[in-house]
């Protein structure tokens, strides 16, 4: 009999368990998320992370938390009073290394660069989120998140294959085809079911990666598993990945379906055991304990081997460095004067404004007009310093002055949901994160990603 607690958990998280499975839910429940700044965006992110069952949170506010704040915001506790990220970076930077992931909202550029450097060196993922007027911005900073006849490819070839299936349908005495649902199902699924068994390019990239080729005692478990998978493909797999062990629902009698299912399950067990042998040999060769990689990890990798992918993001220092800035990405995106990359340039300009004037442009109504010239000067200086020969329309300068660094709840709510989704991907190590910058425009209701 199933444990009552497990049944309750399955009922509570039924839909999300279908998305990321038991192992994904366990990862969420054991995660410790740090949120910097309990802004509108920050609290929206928290709300969307609490519902899936994240284990624990720590909130650090940019301004020192008062007793009144702790009483007004239900996300804050008395233990939050008196802490700020700047003080922690000055006195105890290792404080941030205890978390599964750090989410930073509305932080000034100087603090972000320091925080990003600490987390990058400690291999702790950082998600930067920002709502500025009608603009949403996210930046992920993480080092790594993998017969004799040919299969019909063209429409004509697949139509011929459908005709071949139709010929197998039984006919009655008058010559009319019988109503055979399984044949009809096969005909309908020709387009989706006929796929080659070649190794996906994303898996080839993992196999050819230096971290997969050069295994050491310090190599993360993922790369050891990837190397074992590579050796399996070259030997037992004969060029193929391990069998997943599952088959889709289909119209068939129960006996034949179960028999077919068992064939796939047994082959999957055999393949996983072969990969496990390669893992054991690799661990022995580098002097690591056999139990350092669990059987659960091994089975999980084998069942999802066709969907592996590694996303590598650049550090914030590389993005902001004069010698390492990705000019090509910015300039090529500016082929359209209203591309979302313009909003990124404006965010960098308002950060420069804040650095020079100690405030954001247009915070007070009387400052809007006088700040237009100052912000335009900051934008020009930024573009010249980074060698970006692009033109930004004055309309954007005026608009960002009118924003006054406001954080409209509609934009914050949208960004909070999107950010929480990326956090879940990173924690569960499932699904593909964006690489590496996401910009949302509330004016045009469009979004784009850039590799900056």
TrEMBL record:
Keyword Metal-binding attributed: no
GO terms of molecular function: NEDD8 activating enzyme activity
Gene Ontology terms: cellular component: cytoplasm
Pathway: Protein modification; protein neddylation
One Pfam family of this chain: ThiF
Biological process according to GO: protein neddylation
Keyword presence, Signal: no
Gene3D superfamilies tied to this protein: NAD(P)-binding Rossmann-like Domain (3.40.50.720)
Entry keyword set: Ubl conjugation pathway
THIF-type NAD/FAD binding fold domain location: 13-83
Function: Regulatory subunit of the dimeric UBA3-NAE1 E1 enzyme. E1 activates NEDD8 by first adenylating its C-terminal glycine residue with ATP, thereafter linking this residue to the side chain of the catalytic cysteine, yielding a NEDD8-UBA3 thioester and free AMP. E1 finally transfers NEDD8 to the catalytic cysteine of UBE2M. Necessary for cell cycle progression through the S-M checkpoint. Overexpression of NAE1 causes apoptosis through deregulation of NEDD8 conjugation.
Family: Belongs to the ubiquitin-activating E1 family. ULA1 subfamily.
Description of how the protein assembles with itself and partners: Heterodimer of UBA3 and NAE1. The complex binds NEDD8 and UBE2M. Binds APP and TP53BP2.
Name of the featured protein: NEDD8-activating enzyme E1 regulatory subunit
């Amino acid at each position: 009999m199933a444990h009552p607690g497990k049944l309750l958990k399955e009922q509570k998280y039924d839909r999300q368990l279908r998305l990321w499975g038991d192992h994904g839910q366990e990862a969420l429940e054991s995660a410790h998320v740090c949120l910097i700044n309990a802004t509108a965006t920050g609290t929206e992110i928290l709300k969307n992370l609490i519902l899936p069952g994240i284990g624990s949170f720590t909130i650090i506010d940019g301004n020192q938390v008062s007793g009144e704040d702790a009483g007004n915001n239900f996300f804050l506790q008395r233990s939050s009073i008196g802490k700020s990220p700047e003080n922690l970076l000055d006195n105890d930077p290792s404080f941030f290394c205890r978390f599964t992931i750090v989410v930073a909202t509305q932080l000034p550029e100087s603090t972000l660069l320091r925080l990003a450097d600490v987390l990058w060196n400690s291999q702790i993922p950082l998600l930067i989120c920002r709502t500025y007027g009608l603009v949403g911005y996210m930046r992920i900073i993480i080092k790594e998140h993998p017969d004799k006849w040919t299969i019909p490819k063209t429409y004509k070839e697949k139509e011929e294959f459908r005709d071949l299936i139709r010929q197998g349908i039984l006919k009655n005495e008058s010559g009319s085809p019988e109503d055979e649902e399984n044949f009809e199902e096969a005909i309908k699924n020709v387009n989706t079911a006929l796929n080659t068994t070649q190794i996906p390019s994303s898996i080839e990239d993992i196999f050819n990666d230096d971290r997969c080729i050069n295994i050491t005692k310090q190599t993360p478990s993922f790369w050891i598993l990837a190397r074992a998978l590579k050796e399996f493909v070259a030997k037992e797999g004969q060029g193929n990945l391990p069998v997943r062990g599952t088959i889709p629902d289909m119209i068939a009698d129960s006996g034949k379906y179960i028999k077919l299912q068992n064939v796939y399950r047994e082959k999957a067990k055999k393949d996983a055991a072969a990969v496990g042998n390669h893992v054991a040999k690799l661990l022995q060769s580098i002097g690591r304990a056999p139990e350092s990689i669990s059987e659960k990890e091994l089975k999980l990798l084998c069942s999802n081997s066709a969907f592996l992918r590694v996303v590598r993001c650049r550090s914030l220092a590389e993005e902001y460095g004069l010698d390492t800035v990705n000019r090509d990405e910015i300039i090529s995106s500016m082929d359209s004067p209203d591309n979302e990359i313009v909003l990124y340039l404006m965010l960098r300009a308002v950060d420069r404004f804040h650095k020079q004037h100690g405030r954001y442009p247009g915070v007070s109504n009387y400052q809007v007009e006088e700040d237009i010239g100052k912000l335009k000067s900051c934008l020009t200086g930024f573009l010249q310093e980074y060698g970006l020969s692009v033109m930004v329309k004055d309309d954007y300068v005026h608009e960002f002055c009118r924003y006054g660094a406001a954080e409209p709840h509609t934009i914050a709510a949208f960004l909070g949901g999107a950010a929480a989704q990326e956090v879940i991907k990173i924690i569960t190590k499932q699904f593909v994160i964006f690489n590496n910058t996401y910009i949302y425009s509330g004016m045009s209701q469009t979004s784009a990603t850039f590799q900056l």
